[in-house]
Amino acid sequence: MRYKSLSFIAAAAVTTLALSSCASGTADEALDPDADISEQSLVVGIWADYYPADLAETFEAETGVKVTIVNHATNEEVMAKITAGGDSGIDVAFVSGQYAQALNDAGLLASLEKSLIPNESNLYAEATELPYDIGNEYSMPYAWGTTGLCYRSDLVSSEPTSWNDLLTPAADVTGKTTMLATERWLALPALKVLGYSVNSTDQSELDEVKAMMLETKKTLLAFDDTTFYTKLVSGEASLTEAWDGWCNYGIAEDPNIKFVVPSEGSDLWTDTMTVLETSKNKEAAMAFINYILEPTVQSWVVENILYKVPNEAAMDLVDPALFETFPNLAMTPAELLEQEGIVDVGDFTPQYTRLVTEILAAN
Q1: Which partner for 284 in 37, 77, 79, 227 could form a disulfide, CB atoms 3.0-4.6 Å apart?
Q2: pLDDT, tens digit, 9 for 90 and up, residues 12-27
Q3: CATH assignment of 9-145+268-331?
């Protein structure tokens, strides 16, 4: 999950666009299936280190389309470019699912032309059932996963099974736990323990989350979205809240590190590929998405950044030994869909921002 920021400013900007009817998108023009895409070029916005280093070169060699890749560190960074007004210059943007939903609601995304993306058939059937975009009408899933407890099995007195093991930690791990600081994920453990939706838009529920988190904060080593796994490797931390793929980075260094989805359940996050309505190269953009869905291309994600992909044909290419080393890679689509899909909460987004700001600022 390439999602590591404390700000939802860009998402709020999208909401503002939608509310003020400033979206510039118009009805999608019919695309030409016979277009010479070698005459087109693409600018692709994607998270750094989230794709093969030679991706632009290999796609150009196959299609003749010149690709310029611009990296972003967070969803918010690319959203700021897209929502600034006018043409961002980006043709294909990689964003997480709830951000794709917000962009589409603001009229900023083109509908996907499925006739130009036949490799969609490589996806698991479950990958068409994601709640932010059922049927993949305006986004195509790239990677997916969940959030859970990442811990040192040799440093805890008992194996954690509940979010409560993190929120009200045992004495032996108190002061050795970390939690994610990004808005929706900071709130997630408490929401699940309280029996609420990860997509809650009830202020009274967030007030309960705040009260719980102010107590939990006293027991934490840190809020940490990026280096928690190194703290586990060093032994500074014993138990952390983590995205599954990021936990795998720790497992790669120390097999004592384990990952578990708590009994109360968790989220289903998805990173997606979208085509901007302002793109003048939509045929090439559809071809690019189709190329990413090639099994040999998307299996790279699993093998190199240790994230699951919703591409069944790609997962079938992965060496089974990798699943033994990193068991969460073997989670089935059905198991993932047991978790709650994250969706955009629209006008309620600033309430999550305020919640995090108040918790982080509290003594």
Answers
A1: 37
A2: 444 434 433 344 344 4
A3: 3.40.190.10
